[in-house]
Specification:
By secondary structure, the protein is of the alpha/beta class. The protein folds into two domains: 1-104 and 260-356, Isopropylmalate Dehydrogenase (3-Layer(aba) Sandwich); 119-256, 3-Layer(aba) Sandwich (Isopropylmalate Dehydrogenase), CATH 3.40.718. Helices cover 41% and strands 20% of the residues. Strands 2-1-3-12-11-4-5-10-8-9 form a ten-stranded mixed sheet, with helices on both faces. Strands 6-7 form a two-stranded antiparallel ribbon. Helix 1 (14-32) links the parallel strand 1 (2-10) and strand 2. Helix 1 (14-32) crosses helix 10 and helix 8 (222-231) runs parallel beside helix 9. The two termini are 22 Å apart. The mean pLDDT is 97. Bound molecules: 3-isopropylmalic acid and magnesium ion (MG). Magnesium ion binds at residues 247, 251.
Amino acid sequence: MNYKIGLLRGDGIGPEIVDSAVRVLEKIGEKYGHSFSFTPYLIGGAAIDQCGEPLPKETVEGCLASDSVLLGAVGGPKWDGLSGDKRPEKALLGIRAAMGLFTNLRPAKLYPALKADCPLREDIVAQGFDIVIVRELTGGIYFGDRGYRTGKYGEEAFDTEAYSRMEIERIAKVAFETARKRNKKLTSIDKANVLETSRLWRKIVHEMAADYPDVSCSDMLVDNAAMQLVRNPAQFDVIVTSNMFGDILSDEASQITGSIGMLPSASLGDNTCGLYEPIHGSAPDIAGQNKANPIATILSAAMMLLYSFNLAKESQAIVDAVDRVLNDGYRTADLAHGKPSLSTVEMTDKIIEYLD
Ligand code: IPM
Ligand code: MG
């Protein structure tokens, strides 16, 4: 079978890490007899520079015609001065919406080999953690009405959050089903003591809990959740939350795994075509230096094999190769603490070597 993969290399370290993941996929193709074809499309600052807009029409059409899409990262200081609508980040929101990717899965687990990198206290680290954050991705305050107006104190800006029953039900369903396949524990995170959207969210999650008697479901306020994630991360299995809370909590969760350079993500909609990307950004400070950790993007490719192509064995082979490379002590600079480290290309070579 031939799988058509769209590549959105983007900005900063994006091109380097996407190329690493492509090499790993090519190795998988060779080893397991699949063929992957890759078509690059412009996005973010690179697209602004070449076509004057962050998300060209050809990119959207190309992604919609692909079997799946792999993204590096977008943004950088060069484009920071642009207005909201023209920023590289707008392209990311645009492509998520255009592809109907309302689910964002962000797994955060503590690798035994990276325990020393976890900034938490030893007794907390000893317990380990393995969490999946299910973040709503095409609604909420990211997509609500916004603008400028003259208010009581003169010039003001506003953003609004809206969530419909349909949007809450479909993301909650993904979360319940994800929990069902794991440790059957779901924590729904909201701010129901203040926000109306959260109160509707909570009510619907409670209604749906009746259909999933095998899943233990509880609520947690987002401020408490931010605290619990560093106090006792082992208590979490699956977390479901809104677009903005998920954005914030997933960065927090990544930091306690040791390095944001490790965390992949999958953005999914109603069909199997997804968008896979590391959760970290474009790291302009190390761009083009062959220093970036490619693991988050390589693990994103592994998620693609699983969720878009149903290639579980091939996906697991990548995850296992990464595990073994880490267990054998190989590190990129972000995890080397000043000790000798592998470059982006060398780390990729290692992972490919371990796939054999
Ligand atoms: C993420 C990023 C994006 C988001 C930005 C770059 C728009 O932080 O994927 O977490 O907020 O969703
Ligand atoms: Mg983020």
